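Q: Could you write out the predicted structure for this multi-component system? I'm mainly interested in how the pieces pack against one another.
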Amino acid sequence: MSNRLRIGVLFSRVRVEEKWIFAALEQRGVDYERLDDRKVFFDLDRPDEWRLYDAILERSISYSSGLNILRVLNAWGIPTVNTARVAEACGDKLATSAALAKYSLPQPRNLVAFSTEAALEAIETIGYPVVIKPTVGSWGRLLAKINDRDAAEAVLEHKSVLGSVQHSIFYIQEFIKKPGRDIRVFVMGDQAITAIYRKAEHWITNTARGGEGEICKINPELEKICLDAAHAVGGGVLAIDILEHPDRGYLINEINHTMEFHTLMPITGVDVAGLMVEYLLKVGRREIEVAL
Amino acid sequence: MKSVICLECDAEIGLDAGVEENEIIVCPDCGVDLEIVSLNPLTVELAPMEEEDWGE
């Protein structure tokens, strides 16, 4: 490895987050390349060109493209932020739930079934309302709050007929009566860096769906649960979404491995892009070892 | 100010000085997403609005 790092940033689109990341790299005089995931390809017998990278930051919008590229890069021993293992655990809600369950971490009650009949039976073991979510997807898309059996039958039938095979993995979550907000915590390595509340009148509080952000102070309990959650999925640079249950306290809802921060960074004033780049450079210099 | 013509509705869209290749811009008139595919010459293409596995 030369003294001068060679960094890659894998992307699908240049969103404001990527512009901030590119700017942070340029401010530090880093030698980096933009790798468009729609244009790259890999010959599995020829890793040499790719091995010239000391580290690659994965910012693909497409989960399947990002994940599969990480699998190849990590198989070749190229450090990435985040790794394929982390992407596998975060990009699929069932995989996230399983990773959290492995460590007995607090999360909403989640059920999974693989036929409409079994899904209906599962729902009725916990009662209505429930939320059905696609296991892969983001930005609050295709979430369905099911208030009664009629709605459950209709949505399950539509999912099984209209969706891809992925939509026949019925991931069912208890409906949490949260206080009009959830919490997004940005975690890097072993630090919970900053957090915002995402507030909305609607039960879906994603800022991508119109939720508004507000600074959230990180207390020791919130910090611990987030670091535990990060550890459960393999660690790295993560955004952890937390629900507040009126009786059970903090519950880990989702973990994002290619997080957006266009709301969080201006509200908190924390230079998330700069911190992410610093972390990436440490991975490139092997000051942080990522488990491949 | 640089500008491009929306491929969907023909509106003229003004661009910021710092516009980058592969950046997505939104037409203020019709709301369609356009990708800057080249800065020289300035060229845009219609961008997919959302795909199934997109997310964060």
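A: Regarding packing and overall arrangement: The mean pLDDT of chain B is 88.
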